[in-house]
Amino acid sequence: MARGLLAPYGLQVDTAASGREAVELVKNNSYGLIFMDHMMPEMDGIETAAAIRKMEGHAQTPIVALTANALRGMREYYLEQGFEDYLSKPISPEALDAIINKWLNNPSPLSLEIEARRLDKLNHYRAAFQMSKTSSGLEIDAEYYGRFTALVESFDKLPDDLQADKALLVEAGRSEDAQKILAMLPAFCENLAAMHRRKADNGGAEGETVGLLLRRLKKAMQDGDAAASKNILAELRAKSLSPRERELYLKLYDLRMAGNAEKALETLENYVGGLEDD
Q1: Which of 120, 158, 200, 259 could bridge 163 with an S-S bond, Cβ 3.0-4.6 Å?
Q2: Model's pTM, two decimal places?
Q3: How many domains does the chain have?
């Protein structure tokens, strides 16, 4: 089952039938991420994770607990036992997406098919909430709100404005505020769909991040390379920028046009320094 869930990511996957077998695999291999079942023969997941932590070179390997126990407080319990994260069974594709992207330093690009499926689900919720407003035959219960909230939470690496909308939708889901969800969800879906289309146009990736472009721009400005600075600014203009990033771009563009390279570099260094502090 684990192999099947991980297949769309194009990752190398090894599986172990027991805690002792898992320890032997880790002794002989280098892993970027370990999913650890709690209940296993010979050694349970907590014992196995502790054994791996004592092995040279594996003190920082992220280990994610897998468990059928979804009681409140279990995530905190596993974190206290030395796990980096927690995933409850049955494993949802949305939750797995979030874990893969969070803990792998260089993850394979998310399958466009998986992302499209998540967008389809979100649009399904959009239609359901709209129907609940006009049809007395459709009632949305607490479990439905919970599934909707989990799906919205699974969308990550969003621009600042969409991240803010996501937080408001999560809050609305938790408080079961259908009116607020209906007011915000259509635009949120459309913005996510636009991001997905850009990924499809780029072969499944967004390309270089805004943060990396800004650091390249800083280096070009420090080197006095006007041509490279101009080209990087053009790349930034084509990006989907957050309001804060758009404001920075306009300032840099105006200062460059005014020939004030020193002030432009100072402005950029302050901004990039803030990113590094964050």
Answers
A1: 158
A2: 0.45
A3: 3
Tell me, yes or no, whether 98 and 128 share the same domain: no
Mean pLDDT for 163-181 is 93
Mean pLDDT, to the nearest integer, of 85-89? 83
> Does 89 share its domain with 131?
no
Q: Are 152 and 173 in contact (CB under 8 A)?
A: yes
Give residue 100's pLDDT. 81
Dihedral of CA atoms 18, 20, 24, 29 in degrees, nearest 10, equals 50
Q: Which residue has the higher pLDDT, 144 or 138?
A: 144
**Statement to judge: residues 140 and 123 lie in one domain:** yes
Mean pLDDT of 148-160: 82
The pLDDT of residue 185: 94
Write phi, then psi, for 47 (nearest 5 degrees): -65, -40
Range of the domain at 173: 112-201
Q: H/E/C letters for each residue in the chain?
A: CHHHHHHHHCCCCCCCCCHHHHHHHHHHCCCCCEEEECCCCCCCHHHHHHHHHCCCCCCCCCEEEEECCCCCCHHHHHHHCCCCEEEECCCCHHHHHHHHHHHCCCCCCCCHHHHHHHHHHHHHHHHHHHHHHHCCCCCCCHHHHHHHHHHHHCCCCCCHHHHHHHHHHHHHHHCCCHHHHHHHHHHHHHHHHHHHHHHHHCCCCCCCCHHHHHHHHHHHHHCCCHHHHHHHHHHHHCCCCCHHHHHHHHHHHHHHHCCCHHHHHHHHHHHHHHHHHC
Residue ending a domain, choose from 103, 134, 150: 103
pLDDT average, residue stretch 150-169 = 85
Highest mean pLDDT among 109-123, 188-202, 216-230: 216-230
Cα separation, 168 vs 179, whole angstroms: 12
